[in-house]
Amino acid sequence: MNQAIRNSWIVAITLFALLFGSISYVQFFAADALNKNPNNNRQLIANFCSNRGPILVSGHPIAESVATDNDCKYQRKYNDPYLYAGLTGFYSLGNGQYGLEEAMKEDLAGTSNDALFERIAQTFTGAKPQGRSVELTIDDSIQKLAYSMIPDGVAGSIVVMNPKTGAIIAMASKPSYDTNLMASHDSSVVAKAYDELVQTPSINLFGSPAFTQTYAPGSVFKLVDTAAALESGKYNKDSVLANPAELAFPGINYALPNYRYGQCYSQTTATFKFALENSCNTPFASIALDLGQDAITKQAEKFGFNDSSVKIPMGVETSRFPGSTGVLDPPSLAQSAIGQLNVTATPLQIAMMTAAIANDGKQMKPNLVQTVRSPDLKTVSSLTPEVLRQSTTPAIAQQIKDWMVSVVDNGIASGAAVPGVKVAGKTGTAEVANNLNNAWFTGFAPADDPQVVVSIVMPNVDVATGALLTSPNASKLFKAVLKK
Fold first, then answer.
1. In 320-393, alpha helices (H)
2. Helices in 73-139 by DSSP H: which ranges?
3. Which of 167, 246, 373, 381 has the smallest CB count inside 10 Å?
4. Which InterPro entries does this chain map to (predicted)?
């Protein structure tokens, strides 16, 4: 009799262990696979209606989940949506998720592998499931200032970053939109909004053009040529460069003209200092023809061109040199060397290149995420500065830095000057169509101890408008950041 009872207990305990183990496995260990199954519509709805973690800027939520009184217990709410749409993206049941909502989805939903014990604790304590919070590197006041500098009707982007850490201080772009429309529980509202938004030219619907869109970089690419020239050993700070009014090519009816603004036409030879101060075209085109396509490509890649692996944590569109054209003939190489033809760059890439020069040649990994915290506010991860690559030597970076200071002090980037602060800068004007240009500024301050990089692009504007929207706005941003 005792043996029968003992056997019954063994069977019962074994069944209980199997049942408990199965429940635990499904709830915790198999949860990720089940949740990610595209056929699991019930889980998709549950995730959409869950208490997703907030995205924070300067301690305030720019995206958060708020309780509702309907069957979907929570709804995503975006604060200052136009200001941050290009970063947060949106979380929509019918149209997916983009931006930080997608890139940080496992942390925000609380479903990442390293959140297992958080989920177990929530289950046993009866606490309502809640995602982690994601604090950004963005400074709210600098973001607002940068956004205000882009006029309505201009598809511009501005990137502000710390060259020593790679932390992105501001990333603003227009045109923008109200991300709350995409988070609505009313599917007809979402569908109507989506159909209208996808027809809006240059909108940051799937991420800020600062990291998703490439533009012809124009003369800011001359910084690559300069680094390549100094790296080659064929040129030095005292080199005298040919500076003809135009660069002719045998056998074809084409000549590359010098930059028609500034003082380029005042002399037929130039130093690097003069050529950069006035953004002369023909000296840098001649350097590229002398060094060859491979040398310019190699240096461009040292600054991050042709690298498709960068994440901030969203994937970044690849900047290209020489583009998809393969081997360039001499006229094409000359045009490419001054940032035209098929050369393209994101504003973020130009900021990264500039930051490498500012940071003694070391290019840091750019990042938007400062800290991730669990629901009980314990730090899960925080930004650790990471070196991506050595773009050039400290000595060459210092020489280029000195010349960029002269571009602001004595050249065509004088609008970027800040009283009492040594500013380094470079302008760019890339011709597009209908007498319009991509207007650029990129630079950093203070030049003797760089704390901030500013890169600005205003596409499809005339020369006068571009001059007003780039260097002077960079000066205001330098002042604002350095006051903090």
1. 330-337, 347-358
2. 81-88, 100-103, 105-109, 116-125
3. 246
4. Beta-lactam/transpept, Beta-lactam/transpept-like, PBPA_dimer, PCN-bd_Tpept
